[in-house]
């Protein structure tokens, strides 16, 4: 029965990222890999959401007790997933926006202005990050200004500009909402970590194109121990070594196309199952 197939497929798609996390080769094409990761999460949610309506459509005109039980069960799954998804989206969105608003207000009070949206904190620890959203800010510490040369500083600013320009915060927020729609024990935390790494790689490559891979790599090494607050995106992370290796790594065009095709197939999977129900 198609409704059961949808639920089973959804469960398989929730579990699949645990194994996909070991396929680090797809990091070499970060944008395509990002589509694939988000495709798994989106497709799993679609499977659960569509199971109930499909079961209800199959029940029309029939009185099979087994089918009624399946309809009630899959309908409950669809309603619970939808309610959880909406509640999660509201909770995560409100929390992130409140964090960023409060942080921007504090930064504007205690930091000195430099070139529009850039703010400089009087701090002796390295730090460079951006606070996305309305009234976006790029935050640097005095230590960062003192220890990086002009070229490295330009690379770091280019990295943060890429985060803001490409709205990587929305990518992470969207994935976080889908990720937390799954039960805690079923979530693949490695998937969320991988998506965070991929958006950093995308920002790194944009910065390297504007400056140079060598300059950016030196800046990233200097910022390895830097930390940034929740809700922000920063150049310094614990994945610096992996990111430096991926600065100039590239994949053949055919492999990139293959990953995009796989992402599209994964997203279309629940719709194909629904199509099968309509045909039969």
From TrEMBL:
Keywords: Hydrolase, Membrane, Metal-binding, Metalloprotease, Protease, Transmembrane, Transmembrane helix, Zinc. One of its GO terms (molecular function) is metalloendopeptidase activity. Its cofactor is Zn(2+). Binds 1 zinc ion per subunit. CDD domains: M56_BlaR1_MecR1_like (cd07326). It holds the Pfam family Peptidase_M48. Residues 104-172 form the Peptidase M48 domain. One of its GO terms (biological process) is proteolysis. It comes from the Bacteria. InterPro entries: Beta-lactam_resp_regulator, Peptidase_M48. The keyword Metal-binding applies. The chain crosses the membrane at residues 6-26, 33-54, 66-87, 257-279. The keyword Glycoprotein does not apply. PANTHER family: POSSIBLE SENSOR-TRANSDUCER PROTEIN BLAR, SLR0241 PROTEIN. Belongs to the peptidase M48 family. This is Zn-dependent protease with chaperone function.
């Amino acid at each position: 029965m198609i409704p059961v197939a949808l639920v089973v497929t959804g469960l398989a798609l929730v579990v699949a990222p645990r194994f996909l996390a070991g396929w680090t080769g797809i990091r070499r094409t970060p944008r395509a890999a990002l589509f694939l990761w988000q495709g798994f999460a989106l497709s799993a949610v679609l499977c659960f959401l569509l199971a109930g309506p499909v079961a209800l459509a199959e029940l029309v005109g029939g009185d099979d007790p087994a089918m009624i039980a399946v309809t009630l069960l899959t309908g409950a799954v669809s309603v619970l997933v939808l309610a959880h998804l909406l509640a999660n989206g509201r909770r995560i969105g409100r929390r992130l926006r409140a964090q960023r608003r409060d942080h921007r207000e504090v930064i504007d009070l205690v930091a000195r202005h430099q070139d529009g949206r850039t703010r400089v904190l009087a701090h002796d620890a390295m730090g460079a990050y951006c606070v996305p959203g309305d009234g976006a800010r790029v935050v640097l510490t005095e230590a960062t200004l003192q220890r990086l040369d002009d070229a490295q500083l330009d690379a770091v600013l280019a990295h943060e500009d890429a985060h803001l320009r490409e709205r990587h915060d929305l990518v992470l927020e969207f994935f976080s909402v889908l990720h937390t729609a799954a039960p805690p024990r079923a979530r693949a935390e490695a998937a969320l970590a991988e998506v965070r790494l991929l958006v950093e790689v995308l920002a790194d490559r944009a910065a390297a194109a504007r400056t140079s891979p060598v300059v950016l790599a030196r800046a990233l090494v200097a910022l390895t121990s830097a930390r940034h607050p929740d809700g922000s995106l920063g150049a310094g992370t614990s994945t610096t070594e992996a990111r430096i290796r991926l600065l100039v790594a590239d994949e053949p065009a055919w492999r990139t196309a293959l990953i995009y095709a796989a992402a599209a197939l994964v997203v279309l999977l629940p719709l194909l199952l629904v199509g099968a129900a309509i045909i039969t």
